[in-house]
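Hi support team,

I submitted a single chain yesterday and got back a structure, but I'm not sure I'm reading the token output correctly. Could someone confirm the output below corresponds to the sequence I sent? I've pasted both exactly as they appear in my results page.

Thanks,
R.
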Amino acid sequence: MSSDSLRIIQILLLCACSAFAASDVDWWESATLYQIYPRSFMDSDGDGVGDLNGITSRLAFLKEIGVTATWLSPIFESPMADMGYDVTNFTKVDPLFGTMEDFDAMLAKAHELGLKIILDFVPNHSSDQCEWFQKSIRREDGYDDFYIWDDGKIDPQTGVRIPPSNWNSEFNGSAWSWNEQRQQYYFHWFLVEQPDLNLRSPMVHQHLIDIMKFWLARGVDAFRIDAVPHFFEMRLANGTYPDEPVSGFTNDTNSNRYYSHIYTFNQPENLEILYEWREFLDEYQRQHGGDTRAMVAEAYATADILSDYISNGTHFGTQLPMNFNFISLRSNMNAKDIERFANSWMDVIWTKHKTANWVFGNHDNSRPATRIGEKRADMMTIIAHALPGTSVTYYGDEIGMTDYDTKCTPSNCDFRDPVRTPLQWSSAKNGGFSTGNSTWLPVNSNFKTLNVQRQRGVARSTLNIYKGMTALKKTLAFKSYKEEGGFAYEALTEQVFQIIRTAPKLEEYRVLANFGRQIEYLYGLTNKTMEYVLLNAYSPHRFGDKVDLSKRITLMPYEAVVLRWVA
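Hi R., thanks for writing in. Yes, this is the structure output for that exact sequence:
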């Protein structure tokens, strides 16, 4: 074993020994969340598609790397028009992923390891093959208004029936589709196969609560709520739907961006249903005991809107509205950008609610190592875990996976496929993901050198940096982030970002990351002498080296370090 590897083990043990659970910090507040895309995590039966038994077989890995809870993208019964986000039955496991018994076994194993399971919840829409939609088409009792139906309008010039409004869908073209059997239009913000549920219907509300009850009874710990900004659309008092104004962003009338979505996005009623679910989940906990059943809300929205998702001062909603600010970072990023994006969250949501989370990758966006470059990806791993609050990791980003290396075009693949390729476990066939002859998406060609097995043995690998940071998140200094003076961050120069985490009068950690191509010299940061406890591959230092920060510290291009001082 190398001296660097031994030193990392010593650091992890040190972190574990100094860990504590602050009484005022709930499990989700300083957690390490990990998103699993089930198709691509681990295949247990050789059919080339990841499944629940594959996840079960690799849960020990999540424990190894310091994960608190894992969120599963949809595993429900689905025709897979939108990779499982088009659900036909919300309380059945799709056979592609296994059986309900497989799910129960996975959940039991996770809990045995001390891991929590967060289930994706898709309340905005269903599949058009869902029994509910078929009943709604037939206008069966109670299901008549289960979805958003309208007769449409008559074009005064042609006399032809046209959609009720000019609304365009997320995937372009009209968001209204005609159903011949019912003789009405139905609304779908996403694919035509994904009709939107009518969340104004009390019966829909009850069905959604029943779904949560079903999974909570099986032992699920939390829910990730999909597509929150799209829950409600503007409907006028006379029952009509107003046209949206032209945005001016594009001349393509079919484009989603052609209109400004002032009537189909971020409506005030969205808050009410989040508050309703929070009340239900809190009551469930009071009745059944155990830890907080939390909600993680997916919403690309401003901090002011997300703040109300948490609370309006009277009611409470989701604990974690996902913070996608860092998703915007690209290869031209610098420390000032990080400070600006961090401030846009902290100035509003931290100030009001004392909570934060940091998402750097997901199943809909280019991977960090591709988006900002492999040299900077490790630095952002350090920063996302060093800032106060919860870090959220997309599977594979813990080893720095890149987007699939063959160009994806609309004719040969989904635009999101390059970020959904199988996890690269080893240099074996199919990257150790599957024993089959093929996989549902190709394994990236760099799997022989970029994989979990190889990085376990490299002291400054992305994986070991990730493990080092999740261990630090359990220390006194990182857990006590609500204490006065418990953290600070700033861009010291255009390229150097600093984070300070402290347990007052006991210990202090200082993160320094140089995002630039030039050597940076910093003077008089503090009067403390600190020890290097975590370094990336661009640092010339060794674990255990000391530096007097009252004098000069030098940062090489792309160098990132974590320093520690103990009273």
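A quick pointer for reading it: The chain is about 25% helix and 20% strand. Let us know if anything else looks off.

Best,
Support desk
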